Amino acid sequence: MSEQQKVRINVEIYGQQYTIVGTESSSHIRLVASIVDDKMREISAKNPHLDINKLAVLTAVNIVHDYLKLKEDYNRLLHDIKKEKDERLND
């Protein structure tokens, strides 16, 4: 999808309606909203007395944590692949 083609999608996250505008496909935007909704519900189930603002911040912290761990894993895999490739070239 090009930079100029913006999609406007209505989604529900944790019982609230949001309009999200972006250049990704509507299915991608819905998936992102679904993941955020699932994470908020997961955290809320463990901490039912959290107000919505704290719940949103904890959700963001958890999602960024997951992202950083995946990024570390990805970088480690790239490093391992490069190392293995270099070893093969030196044999």
UniProtKB/TrEMBL annotation:
It comes from the Bacteria. InterPro entries: Bac_CellDiv_Activator, Cell_div_ZapA-like, Cell_div_ZapA-like_sf, Cell_div_ZapA_firmicutes. GO terms for cellular component: cell division site; cell septum; cytosol. This is Cell division protein ZapA. It is found in: Cytoplasm. The keyword tRNA processing does not apply. NCBIfam families: PRK14126.1.
